[in-house]
Amino acid sequence: MCEYCEEYEAAVIGKPVPSFGEINTFDPKTGGFGKFSIEEAKKNKKWTVLVFYPADYTFVCPTELQDYAGKQEELEKMGAQIISVSTDTHFVHMAWQRDEKLLEKVKFAMGADPTGKVSRIFGVYDEGSGLALRGTFIINPEGTLVASEVNFYNVGRNADELVRKVEANIYVSTHPDEVCPAKWHKGGKTIKPGPAVVGHVYEALK
């Protein structure tokens, strides 16, 4: 625990994400700088995916961001936006995106969290290194955290699984009496929980 760190309210699954104000971003689409806040995402009624990663100019990180970039258009069609976040500044994001060929197709905003405030709120800040772990968080348009995944530094994530999770969360948000089973994809069979299904999930999925 950091002796001198300010304490922040933690983000909790199923609860509204605590406000962290605005963070600076680099926008590869325009080549300029911008801002991001949960309040703005709620105002625009956007599903938001926050993708935390350890650092610019590293090794696994550009492969992950390249993978997410390949799914950006698909996610945007669902009404979701990706914001990548590390403890680098937005100036370093700009330089890295221009230098690293794997990032040529990255067009989502790259958020800067140099104080570690946002990383701490989401529980991914590593006090020993000052870096963020590989955390992925899905936030609905009302600002509620609905999904999270955290990996250590040495294993990258899969954007296909992110798309599946976003699809599933969007589906259950509009079909609150249904739940999505393992490996569910759009168009797949869902389950309506109830007394008749207890002990008979196999039959319910047929």
Automatic annotation (TrEMBL):
Which locations, inside or outside the cell, does it occupy? Cytoplasm
Can you tell me which residues form the catalytic site?
61
Gene3D superfamilies hit by this protein: Glutaredoxin
Q: Which CDD domains match?
A: PRX_Typ2cys
Keywords assigned by UniProt?
Antioxidant, Cytoplasm, Disulfide bond, Oxidoreductase, Peroxidase, Redox-active center
Q: Which GO terms describe its cellular component?
A: cytosol
Q: Classify the source by domain of life.
A: Bacteria
Domain (Thioredoxin) ranges: 11-171
Give the matching InterPro entries.
Answer: AhpC/TSA, Peroxiredoxin, Peroxiredoxin_AhpC-typ, Thioredoxin-like_sf, Thioredoxin_domain
What Gene Ontology molecular-function terms does this entry list? thioredoxin peroxidase activity
Show the coiled coil region(s).
Answer: none
A Gene Ontology annotation in the biological process aspect, one of them, is: hydrogen peroxide catabolic process
Similarity comment text for this entry = Belongs to the peroxiredoxin family. AhpC/Prx1 subfamily.
Q: What is this protein called?
A: Peroxiredoxin
